[in-house]
Specification:
alpha/beta, five-stranded mixed β-sheet, globular, 368 residues
Length: 368
């Protein structure tokens, strides 16, 4: 084989399977070390906001609108495993005096290093036509994949921020976000705190005029949104706190990773919506309609392209009279839920978690 053919063979027969192993390694690391890694991240986060608070008390920094985690490719090439963390004011990337720190994401880059070490062992088989220079190129290519797991991990860990007493920690803008991405490149919101006192009319206008940005990664709290028309919108990773949403129409919505806390969702219609990783634990969902929703745990249709979705969570929720006919619920969590008179015909509940086997058998005879 000439050099071009060797490189093609290397990527097809070595890099492609190594990439699949990298995703398995990253997922396994997060699964087995999640508690430890989350504690490390939150410890660093608290130190960061303490530094911000100290600067604010000295008058050296105003209210904070963003804390951003940025992967540094130059650091990666140099063998470091650090992520730049910056606290910005409302001007964001134009802030000329951000508070800076570094978070060590060694757990993620150790997985990448294991992948590269495995590929390095295969290089002698290519008799010099594929060199170690190619490994640097692969490292930079796979850095984007590693960053997707970093986004996934920090988003999950940021659920702990919901319980923070922010007013006693540092001065914030009305809208505060934690974001993760690449340095001076695209980033994604993983936590949002919206303290604006908006009326339901303003919320309704925002939904009607939404170009997608208003409701993605949003934070809604303390509102009466009952009987609203919210169908066909993208609410991915939004958070709903203490909201009355009975009889609201959420048909055909994208509700990936949404979190619902202390929400009244009686008679709410989620028909045909995508609910990967949504968390309804503790909510009132009497007679709610989940017909033909999609919310399996893991990868959609088994295609591994990045982090797995968490299980759809209904733990300790009231699902009396709810309609799950035709729903895709593989791996969903129903532990502690009230499932009286729930409809299940045609639902896929393979691997779903119920209180016990006896209750599982007593729910219905219509499981498939």
């Amino acid at each position: 084989m000439d050099r071009k053919e060797s490189i093609l063979h290397f990527y097809t027969h070595q890099v492609k399977p190594a990439r699949a192993k990298l995703m398995d390694d990253l997922q396994h690391t997060l699964h087995t070390r999640y508690t430890e890694l989350t504690a490390e991240l939150l410890s660093h986060f608290r130190l960061m906001i303490q530094e911000v608070s100290d600067a604010q008390k000295l008058g050296a920094k105003g209210p904070i609108a963003y804390i951003q985690y940025s992967m540094l490719r130059t650091e990666l090439l140099g063998g470091a495993m650090n992520v730049l963390v910056e606290a910005y004011d409302a001007s964001w990337l134009l802030d000329r005096t951000p508070i800076r720190s570094f978070y060590s994401s060694h757990w993620a880059y150790e997985c990448l290093e294991r992948m590269l070490n495995g590929l390095r062992e295969e290089l002698p088989h290519y008799q010099g036509t594929v060199t170690v220079v190619e490994l640097d190129r692969i490292m930079l290519q796979e850095a984007a994949l590693v960053n997707r797991y970093l986004v996934h991990f920090i988003r999950r860990s940021c659920s702990a921020l919901e319980d923070f007493e922010w007013n006693s920690l540092m001065d914030l803008e009305q809208i505060f976000e934690v974001r993760v991405g690449e340095y001076l490149d695209a980033s994604e919101c993983v936590f949002r705190l919206d303290r604006r006192n908006r009326s339901i009319e303003e919320i309704g206008e925002a939904l009607e005029e939404s170009d997608g940005l208003e409701v993605m990664y949003a934070h809604f709290q303390g509102l009466d949104m009952s009987e609203m028309e919210c169908s066909d919108l993208d609410f991915r990773y939004s958070r709903f706190d203490r909201i009355d949403m009975h009889s609201t129409d959420f048909q055909r919505c994208i509700l990936i990773g949404t979190r619902w806390r202390n929400c009244s969702l009686e008679n709410t219609d989620f028909t045909g919506s995508i609910l990967y990783g949504a968390d309804f634990s503790g909510c009132s969902l009497e007679r709610a309609v989940f017909r033909e929703i999609i919310g399996e745990v893991g990868h959609p249709e088994g295609l591994a392209q990045g982090p797995e979705y968490d299980a759809l969570n209904f733990e300790n929720s009231n699902l009396s009279g709810a309609d799950f006919r035709g729903a895709h619920l593989r791996g969903a969590i129903f532990r502690g839920a009230n499932l009286t008179d729930t409809l299940w015909e045609g639902a896929d509940v393979e691997g779903a978690i119920f209180d016990d086997a006896e209750r599982r058998r007593g729910l219905s005879d219509t499981f498939v």
